[in-house]
Amino acid sequence: MKVTAQPSADTLTLILDGELDASSAIVLDTELAKPDILEYRKVLVDCAKLSYISSAGLGVFISHLQRFQDAHVKLVFFNMQEKVFNVFEILGLDALMTIVPSATEAEAA
Amino acid sequence: MPKRLLSFLLPFSLLSWLLLLLSALSHSGAGQWLGDWPQWTTQLTQGAFVLSVFLYYRYQPSPLQGQAFVKLLRRLLLGPGLLALGCVALHLVERLAKDEPIFNSNSLLFTSIYTLNLGLFVIFLARTNYAWRALVLFRSSSRLQREWTVFEVLLGATLLFRLVGVNPPNYIGIPIVVLLGLYGIYLSGHQKWVAYLSQRDKWNAVLLQAGLLFGVLVFVQYFRVTQADPQLIAPRPQYAFLLLTAFFSTFYALMGLLVTFFNMPIADIIEQRRNEILRLQRLTQIIQRGQTSAEVYNILLESAVQTVHAEAAWLDLDPGHAGADVAETSFYYNLVPDQASVLRGLLKGHELAEGEFITNDLNLRPGFGNRPQAFRSLLQLPLRGLHYNYGILHLLKVEPHTFDREDLNILQTFTSQAVLSIENLELVRTSLENQRTQEELKIASQVQDSLIPKNLPTDNWFEISSHSLAAKEVGGDFYDFLHLPGRRLAVIIGDVSGKGVTAAFHMAQMKGIFHSLMQENPLAKTERDKFPVPSRFMTQANTALSHCLEKSSFITSSLYIIDYEQGGFVFARAGHCHTLYYHALREEVFYFESTGLGLGIIRNETYEKHIKNQFYDYSPGDVMVIYTDGIVEARGEGGAEYGEDRLKLRLEETYYQDAEDIKAFILKDLNAFTQGYPIHDDQTLLVIKFKSAQPPL
């Protein structure tokens, strides 16, 4: 699992690469827990290369959800593979998080 | 040599000595009553006596037991040495009695005593000779053993000459005797046993050997004096065999004495090496006796001090790695903690706190001049482990230039052995702790097992079959049943995110929440409202969980309330896996498509908006398959997931069978799919088959 952060003016793009399981969830948690992340208006998560997400991986996003909402930082997922999207959907997270098909829609969101 | 012959040797030697005495008396003129014996009888009886005594001692068990060299020497001195004393005493008695008129007329007494002394001398030589054999052959090669045998055979040959009365001319006899003497000198060089003597034993050995030499001298002196006596008529001891054995006995004792004596200075070093080995052994044995780390450190300090003769020492341990059973982190020898802390401070101040080194003179080191102690030599050595240093050992001596590289090398062997012991003890302790944890997990597993319903509800309108398997000792999956009034049954299934002990705790919480929320509400207006509908239950459970669930944990769950009277059920899905369903009338297998958010994701009232009830009427023959993601996400070859589609296909093939058979079929297929791959998530599977209330007639 590799997490690459690409900051621009008011947007931070996180590119996830690999399988997000219990061991790699720590890497992502460290990234999301940084205090200055709340200074962005939007955090975009590129899931194109995210091949698998475990419940621990979901737990990382869930644990930061409230914090992002309180700070009015928008969390947007895009380029999500169908298998990964299914996991979000079954848990009901699709209704709670913004998941869009592509980067253009993510930037527009 | 046969035993019978051996027991015969002793009487034989006694007999031959008596004959020798008679023969000597006959020749000396003291025993005219004996008649005139031929000249050769003396030679023959003397030869036979010597032969039998030597043979007797030759076949005695070795006088050397183990490495009891001093004991051997002492017994030799107390035996033959006392013989020598006896010899002197006899001589004195004879001298005193000489002037008495009864004895003066004949040489009866003189000859008797002389013969007796000769016998004693032979016994003395035989015993000494074979004691020396044991020493020469101590830890010897087979070549030396052969050489010894040759020596014996050659000596035996000289004796044989005597026995048959052949006296070779001097120009042949003397060189032979000289050569044999040289051979004896060569054999005397084998003093290996001296190296095995301890320092104290060496002094004993020197004294005992000196005593033996004195014994020989007494005999020799006696024979020299008596030889000149005009009364002496027969038999002379100066023939090759006795000469040679006497020479060998004396020379070996002399050599042994010298070797032992000159061995003294180096004995110290040999002793020291032996002690080092012994201390190392002691250190090694501690592990096997299962002692504590503190004892290992104590023995290390003690051994190190003794080995290099240090005058003071201290051992500082790293508090982080000293070992759990070590109370103090510093050990001192002949040093008060304050003295050590002064030096410790100085060493730290000069960045010498780590590493190994020898300081020959602390006075010459800048900054070390103003110490209160007199110590000038310092040796520092860390206790190096595989991953970290366990501590540092410091040894001190008053005199400068007293430690060397050699000391450091020996001590390194000690410290590595000590570290090995410490690490071993640590390993044993960790494995014990692991064992305990395993035991506790086993208990936890049993407790959790008791939380899973063993007796499935039975009735004539449905069949239920269940399966659950945890990936670790304890898991986060759960399911439960509860009969409600009005012929209703509540079925719950759930999955706590994560695995292991944390998940197991939340699973137990969820079970408690299920049983406490599914209580009758006495204030309810209608019969149906007495128990919460599934969506209401989920909302209340979400509120209850929001206080105790970890921030990054969540629970997925589905609750079904099956109403037999109505022939329908209502359920809510809180983020849990979709329910697989076989519709008997339509002959169709499908997944219920419904929305619902997992528990613990939103921890406020807004959760209510994210959960819905779904109602469904069932008909007899319908099958409901409820499971956790451990089933559909089970991995097989190439990391492929079992998947919802494959599960659906299996139900299409088996919907007509009993619930138990459907479950068994699915599990068999799942096992075939995951064959050889580890389970990475807990698995739960429930199969419910609806039937007609009354079996059709």
What does this entry show, briefly?
The complex is a heterodimer of chains A (109) and B (697). Chain A is an alpha/beta fold and 109 residues long.
Description:
Chain B: This is Serine phosphatase RsbU, regulator of sigma subunit. Chain B: It comes from Hymenobacter arizonensis (Siccationidurans arizonensis). Chain B: Pfam families: GAF_2, SpoIIE. Chain B: GO terms for molecular function: phosphatase activity. The complex is a heterodimer of chains A (109) and B (697). A five-stranded mixed sheet of chain A has the order 1-2-3-4-5. Chain A is built from four helices and five strands. Chain A has one domain: 2-Layer Sandwich (Transcription Regulator spoIIAA), CATH 3.30.750.24. Helix content of chain A is 40%, strand content 33%. Chain A has helices at residues 22-33, 55-70, 82-91, 103-108; strands at residues 2-7, 11-20, 42-53, 74-78, 98-100. Chain B is an alpha+beta fold. Helices cover 53% and strands 14% of the residues of chain B. Chain B contains 17 helices and 15 strands. Chain B has a five-stranded antiparallel sheet, covered by helices on one side. In chain B, a hairpin with a 4-residue loop joins strand 11 and strand 12 (588-591). Chain B is elongated. Chain B starts with a helix and ends in a 7-residue tail after the last strand. The chains are: A alpha/beta (109), B alpha+beta (697).
SSE series of chain A: EEHEHEHEH
Query: What does the radius of gyration of chain A come to?
Result: 13 Å
The rough form of chain B would be described as elongated
- How many DSSP H or I helices of chain B? 17
CATH architecture descriptor text of the largest domain in chain B: 4-Layer Sandwich
Can you tell me the CATH class of the largest domain in chain B? Alpha Beta
Rg of chain B is 51 Å
Shape of chain A: globular
- The amount of helix of chain A comes to 40-55%
Helix percent of chain B reads 40-55%
Strand content of chain A: 25-35%
Give the neighbour order of strands across the main sheet of chain B. 2-1-5-4-3
Biggest interface: A-B, 17 and 22 residues
